[in-house]
Write the structure tokens for this entry.
Amino acid sequence: MEKNLIIRILILYPVFVYVFLFLPAGSFKFWQAWIYSVMLLIPMILTLLYLVKNDRDLLKRRLRLEEKEKKQKTIVRLFRLPFILGFLIPGFDYRFNLSDVPTILVIISNIMVFLGYLWVYFVFRENSYTSRIIEVEKEQKVISTGPYSIVRHPMYLGMIIMFLFTPLALGSWWALAIFALVPLIMILRILNEESVLLKNLPGYKDYCQKTTYRLIPFVW
């Protein structure tokens, strides 16, 4: 299964990059897209190899796509349109020369995307129960170490960093307005997720009292 998964990703990832980035741009000269796609592919493959070797249970959890919570199904639907538009706009932005993002800002933004992904990787190493869907398993325990000692939802923090810097990494000011919706959608997801965890995960209430910030230290 793992080998087939790696093969599928290696096949589907270039397709995704072509359809969402190069096709709207109408050119393979969209240099920002080349840097961005490589900046994502490297940590993606390294994370996948780590999961295959060290935590196949987490890999299986990350492959679950069907949400069980009704509210989460709605939130997932809300996320789809900004996700699609956010990745399509930079290509059209490049084609019609609508934005002028300085090269240094493009480079810095790509570094931030990489660091956001790296942060998610450390979350995976710390917590084997970071399923893609909202659920509590029978033997699941509260994790309060590593990134979880800083905020209660560190994976979402890493994802927000990645999404907020993605438009500038792709040289687009216009897409920034779309991806600015991502933190709001994440907040809705977190609020619902916490209600599920408080109800079903023993010890989570005490953890909330110890780690007071949900997403951003000293803010929320």
Summary: The chain has one domain: 2-210. The chain has nine helices and no strands. Residues 70-95 form the longest helix (26 residues). The domain at 2-210 is CATH 1.20.120.1630 (Four Helix Bundle (Hemerythrin (Met), subunit A)).
